[in-house]
Amino acid sequence: xxxxxxxxxxxxxxxxxxxxxxxxxxxxxxxxxxxxxxxxxxxxxxxxxxxxxxxxxxxxxxxxxxxxxxxxxxxxxxxxxxxxxxxxxxxxxxxxxxxxxxxxxxxxxxxxxxxxxxxxxxxxxxxxxxxxxxxxxxxxxxxxxxxxxxxxxxxxxxxxxxxxxxxxxxxxxxxxxxxxxxxxxxxxxxxxxxxxxxxxxxxxxxxxxxxxxxxxxxxxxxx
Length: 223
Hints:
Blueprint: E1 7-14, H1 20-34, H2 39-58, E2 67-74, E3 79-86, H3 106-113, E4 116-121, E5 128-135, E6 145-149, E7 158-161, E8 164-175, E9 181-187, E10 193-196, E11 200-204, E12 207-210
Antiparallel strand pairs: 1-2, 2-3, 3-5, 4-5, 6-11, 7-8, 8-9, 9-10, 11-12
Helix pairs in contact: 1-2, 2-3
């Protein structure tokens, strides 16, 4: 996936567990630090992302379906976009809980903090993507890099293997006997790379470096 000028993103997958919301916040915190986002915006972004991930984890869906997260920065206009996808049915609705209700304020909080937010249907009508956008003036992302799931790498890109850039010649996906998904990336030189589908890779315009920074990233579900 080529990266247009002024466009930077990271995509990863989360298992359906209580530890996933803190993991998503940690990834966002690290990336926004690299992008030099103002502290107030970073704190708001963490809160919004946490609510979106928590809602996705609560959505009725098979236990093996993972939650997808995409963090995007657009340099022009200083816009931070957070997307969380799940395989659950239905569309989230903003609730107006009473003063004594202990839960149900997630989307109400997102609505209050975000510049705008919405819900999009996913491909093949499986689940949905809930997104929120925040104004992030002064954002300065690292030049020409984006972290994405290995399954999104495409032929024609370049990956860094052992400090050397290699061109991707082919991509195919296969399943483990347990049902998980992995990808085999054929290169112009050397052995192919065999990665879990959700494993993070860093993509750069004109090249991409393989990165395993996303500890705990598992196989992407078929959703």
